[in-house]
Amino acid sequence: MPPTGHPSDNVQVVEKTTPFSGYFQVDHYTLKHRRFDGGWTGEISREVFERGHAAAVLPYDPVADRVVIIEQFRTGAFAAGQQPWLLEFVAGIIEEGEKPEEVVRRESVEEAGVVLGPMEFIGHFLVTPGGSSEMLYLYCGMVDSQGVGGYHGIEAEGEDIKVITLPFEQAVARFSGDGPHNMTAVVAMQWLQLNRDRLRAAWAGSESVDQKV
Question: Is the per-residue pLDDT at 208 higher than 50?
């Protein structure tokens, strides 16, 4: 069991500095934390990558049983020596004062050209807790996939996004097997596999709306 009480009672920050601040930020911590046996560690030096928190959504058409997927270049994948064009789902950084639900609705229009209908919250996750504070809020949202596709994104932000739709079974296959895969997309697809029948039944009676822009 972890130490009881508020985290601030079990962590002592000796020093915190910000050696780099640009598009992203890196903070340096010198800290101690309580041990499982009740004692304290010595001073630990760690960098934390600060990129803000994010929200993502799996756009799913329950009528056509199709998934809307985006593909784009990722610098981190390139730096890791991997295929840098990754299949993903719509996502965006949560700006100050925004709710995660607002982010995914906005980004769905910008990145995929679709308007989300009803949504379900999948969960929130620490993406890389060993070195980043980023929290991801993940959703599944209903869309009408008819006619969806093409190229999207905001050019001024360097976005070049290809949008495709796949039948559910093909989407499962694309995010299985050999990678690399976007982990957020894998988690979302596994959730959809478990909840697909329930969603199709629940969303079948949803009001029809114009869900393309």
Answer: no
Cα separation, 175 vs 181, in Å, equals 7
Quick check: is 157 catalytic? yes
In whole numbers, what is the pLDDT of the chain averaged over residues? 92
Q: Give pLDDT tens digits for 99-113.
A: 999 999 999 999 999
Q: What is the pTM of this model?
A: 0.88
> Which of 96, 155, 157, 207 is labelled catalytic?
157
Q: How far is Cα 208 from Cα 165, in angstroms, rounded to an integer?
A: 19
Tokens of 177: 């097997």
Task: State residue 180 phi and psi, 5-degree precision.
Answer: -75, 150
In angstroms and rounded to an integer, the radius of gyration of the C-alpha atoms of the chain is: 20
Which residue segments constitute the domains of the chain, with CATH numbers given? Answer: 7-50 (no CATH), 54-203 (3.90.79.10)
